[in-house]
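User: For this week's homework, look closely at the record that follows, marking any run of repeated tokens, and judge whether sequence predicts the tokens.
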Amino acid sequence: MTESPSSTPRARDPFLDNARGLLITMVVVGHTVESFRVLDQVIPDMVYTAIYSFHMAAFVAISGYLSRSYRNEPRQLKRVLSSIVAPYLIFQMVHEVAKHFLEGRNLELQLFLPAWTLWFLLALLVWRLLSPLLRSLRHPLLIAVAVAVIAPLDPDLDSTFSLGRIAGMLPFFVIGLISTPETLARIKAFRHRWLGGAIMVAALLCALLLREQVPASTFFLREAYDEDAPALFEMIVQLGALVTGVIGTFGLLLITPRGSSALSVLGTRSLTIYLLHPVLLLPIRYADHPPAWIHTWWFGVLLLPAAVVLTLLLGSAPVSRATRWVTDPPIGDLLIKDPAEDAGHGSGEHAAAESETTSARANRTTPHAPRAPRHTRR
């Protein structure tokens, strides 16, 4: 959802922006269905489970692909602070204030327990900072899968600092990180694009037929394994969730438009949409007694296109411009030194050192003036 951390500006790829436009729409649909508590209805629950089986896997993989050039350079660190750290802190406080007024909770700042949707920003921060290390590994994907499968054996693994999802979704990030432009070009040139539609339909059918056996929480990848279930079984389920996410990501990329479209605009503003839509859903999410008509079948069906409309509104140019000061505050320039400053400071120190060295050499090589003879009295 954030921009590419490249140190040099490049033309945006409409293909990736289109993919992010599709994914952010799915995010808003899923969170809307969840907030209005209509998951007891067949159609909303089917759509919700199908979306969660792959949509965050795809988002994380795209984020990994866009992190290939990340080197912890000053310009990249500025973007990290402006587009990840600052929005996380701002909206973390917004969520806490909302809980205070809507639920009567004590007002406090939970820095290391991300509120609802903000886990992604915290996880992305860690993944991006680790990118140079991950790229230097001999077998990064194998190591990432091992971490995702073994880490949940720790019974204390939970949502604190997004550690559960950092470990569980690490393979998706690494897949994007080790992919190349040639890999993306092959996907774009894949002739049988109908296969992507077939994968999407299969996801919906599996979500419908396996509604009781495979809940959406299977794909959250955020916490320790169930202690009451055999560890081997839980590890196999974890691997199955990872494979499902990869297949769904491939299917989504196949159906993604190749050229510029309305989805491209949503993709460029996906971070704004991601940060703002939960704020609008918080009142209904924390409502103690929602209206009875929420649980009617027709409302559950109408809620899906309503969520799409909400995505379009939040992705509009006026909303993006009006909220940029909180969704992308330019604090990076204030906190990160410009390389030119270090260069100038270093050159000044170097010049001073050279001057001192030259002066010292001159003192050693210049002959002393002869002293005048002293006159002694006889």
About this structure: The radius of gyration is 28 Å. The longest helix spans residues 74-103.
